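Why does residue order matter? Because the sequence determines the fold. Keep that principle in mind as you read this record.
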Amino acid sequence: MTAPPEKSHRLFVACELSGDVRATVGGLVETLRGQSEGAVRWVDPRSLHVTLKFLGEAPERSIPAVKVALQEAVVRHSPFTLELDGIGMFGGREGLRVLWAAVAGDVLRLEALARDVNRALAVVGFPPETRPFRPHLTLGRVRDHVPTRQRAEIEVAAGKVEVPASEWVTDAIALVRSRLQPTGPRHDILATFPLRAPRAQS
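Structure:
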């Protein structure tokens, strides 16, 4: 008799957003939606976050060690402020693929937090990221069938959209489970880890 397959979960580590920022980005998505004529799959603002580390499919038995690692990763970090900073775009051979909102503010402290998360998780078996850390909020992905000319038109229109001023305080990181569903991914927070180090005195 064979043993049942080991249960696994699709996991990532992220900084969550405030409700006000989600509402701001939701308005931004609606503006962009009106210019794309159904060519883009837009992200539900309720699922927006700043990803620090994508773990992929991880065995359920690894979750306790992941939680301990993340608790260690946040020890040296205190809360910091981030803000929205314009529309960015990733492209491919056929043109525009992804639209995103850039993140500015205390980005150096965000980068330091991401490095410590990577180091801590490497100890428990998750290889560190090799790509440069580029903090952003993914807004939408262009559908595969969209022709190159329409991708270029969406890119031009998106480049003219003004992003409202919006900032938020990052005071914790979260371990999140992503479950893929027909209506889009559903995210469940498994644990949060507050940034409790004292703020540096200026």
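The mean pLDDT is 89.
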